[in-house]
């Protein structure tokens, strides 16, 4: 296959306010070419997350297929409650978005991942910003899948900072740690963009207000969905802004130079009170951990990309 001018990317997501913001960013990236979206349960039910992905694609003319994925964990456990207090009952700050035309593909997300790995063998990057369930299912479905993926860039985990759903665990890793374990042990090159860096990049209310005025319909969407997110962070963290979670993974895929990283091996705790905690052993291995971030540069890039694409 001839080299592509842009790197082919699949966005594995559970929209989600920050997921929606990340998708707008990804659609505006210069080095990445979005080939499809796979949805997973997490910030809302799989049905709601898929609805939200379809709505965003329709509203912003993102012409890629959307594949609905896992609705339970890789071990078959159903999520009992969804974090409506963070993202609203509909996952998008209660704007009750409904796609008018766009429909999901008939095949499941893991099948699309397997097929895409074959099509773009050695080139495909998966940006995973939800539970790792779809990836784990693809790994289990095809023994060659892991060898064909260039890299998984995941938003999840917390190494040297506290978790956000327990003292130790971040939400995506906690939501399906067995799936995370399958991914970590798969041999796929992985970069973890976790709370260690995402909590260092804060989008203030003033930053969002300014961006909304200059970025067209993307700004209108941000003005609709971010108040809910801002209220959550203000009530929980006491700040007038919110952490740049999922967009940080997109930023790494687009421009890794924004981050400082360490090479080593990632693992995840599966038992006990630390269940869902991610661990990192520096040294050999094909995993990278983001440890530092140029937050000013990331925020500038996010602003410029959205204004250029949608303003």
- How large, in whole angstroms, is the Cα Rg? 18 Å
Structural domain count: 1
What is the end-to-end distance?
Answer: 35 Å
Low-confidence stretches: none
Number of helices: 13
Shape: globular
Number of strands: 11
Largest sheet: 9 strands, mixed
Known CATH architecture? Alpha-Beta Complex
Broad CATH class: Alpha Beta
CATH topology: Inosine-uridine Nucleoside N-ribohydrolase, Chain A
Q: Helix and strand string, N-terminal first?
A: EHEHEHHEHHEHHEHEHHEHEEEH
Structural class by helix and strand composition: alpha/beta
Helix content: 40-55%
Taken as a percent bin, the fraction of beta residues is 15-25%
CATH superfamily: Ribonucleoside hydrolase-like
Taking strands numbered 1, 2, ... along the chain, how are they ordered across the largest sheet?
Answer: 3-2-1-4-5-6-11-9-10
Mean pLDDT over all positions: 96
